[in-house]
């Protein structure tokens, strides 16, 4: 397609939008105390928060893949009734305020919760304010990103390969493992990266359901919030780390998004 000059009525608001999105990030880079970067990054609390964030986000992503890929297949390929309702329920965490999600988890899995009371009375295990609670909260808010990505990949995949496998005598499980999964592997990978990035940045549900205990439930976003009240310079450095992780996530997805857009252009 022939490239045309952008009309002024579109160029002006587009420029303002770019400035609105980029200037805060530029301000973060400008105000970063580069001379104190090493000292602030090696502080004991920073290392603990970073390790816990990476561990919990990775575990949440693993749980999301194990549970979310089959769910995406049900939404994309199953003919069961109520799929529209199920899809709506799956996407609710995307629009639900994270704090509300944390409250909902607490009412279900808390010591006096619907499931938590039974769990505590039967096994003596309590979930809230533990590292497991961090993983559960992150999984709750991040899994829909993976499900939507994989469902889209399944809908876009050529079903003729699966039909050919069925014609050759493969059952549905074998077809799913040997044909469907390889077809949608890029979608699963992209969804997993998005899920991991969302889990890494989770704040509201985590602080509500898991609390903010250093070394146990204090992830990087919670550490930023706490540092902002005590040491703004440390908060800036922690925010810079999360910004770098976000940029790295975008680079991992560049072939799927930016590359596709460039090819279209």
TrEMBL record:
<feature type="transmembrane region" description="Helical">
    <location>
        <begin position="179"/>
        <end position="199"/>
    </location>
</feature>
<dbReference type="InterPro" id="IPR006469">
    <property type="entry name" value="NifC_ABC_porter"/>
</dbReference>
<keyword id="KW-0500">Molybdenum</keyword>
<comment type="function">
    <text>Part of the binding-protein-dependent transport system for molybdenum; probably responsible for the translocation of the substrate across the membrane.</text>
</comment>
<dbReference type="InterPro" id="IPR011867">
    <property type="entry name" value="ModB_ABC"/>
</dbReference>
<keyword id="KW-1133">Transmembrane helix</keyword>
<keyword id="KW-0472">Membrane</keyword>
<protein>
    <recommendedName>
        <fullName>Molybdenum transport system permease</fullName>
    </recommendedName>
</protein>
<dbReference type="Pfam" id="PF00528">
    <property type="entry name" value="BPD_transp_1"/>
</dbReference>
<feature type="domain" description="ABC transmembrane type-1">
    <location>
        <begin position="50"/>
        <end position="253"/>
    </location>
</feature>
<keyword id="KW-1003">Cell membrane</keyword>
<dbReference type="GO" id="GO:0005886">
    <property type="term" value="C:plasma membrane"/>
</dbReference>
<dbReference type="InterPro" id="IPR035906">
    <property type="entry name" value="MetI-like_sf"/>
</dbReference>
<comment type="similarity">
    <text>Belongs to the binding-protein-dependent transport system permease family. CysTW subfamily.</text>
</comment>
<keyword id="KW-0812">Transmembrane</keyword>
<feature type="transmembrane region" description="Helical">
    <location>
        <begin position="52"/>
        <end position="76"/>
    </location>
</feature>
<feature type="transmembrane region" description="Helical">
    <location>
        <begin position="129"/>
        <end position="150"/>
    </location>
</feature>
<keyword id="KW-0813">Transport</keyword>
<feature type="transmembrane region" description="Helical">
    <location>
        <begin position="234"/>
        <end position="253"/>
    </location>
</feature>
<dbReference type="GO" id="GO:0015098">
    <property type="term" value="F:molybdate ion transmembrane transporter activity"/>
</dbReference>
<dbReference type="InterPro" id="IPR000515">
    <property type="entry name" value="MetI-like"/>
</dbReference>
<feature type="transmembrane region" description="Helical">
    <location>
        <begin position="88"/>
        <end position="109"/>
    </location>
</feature>
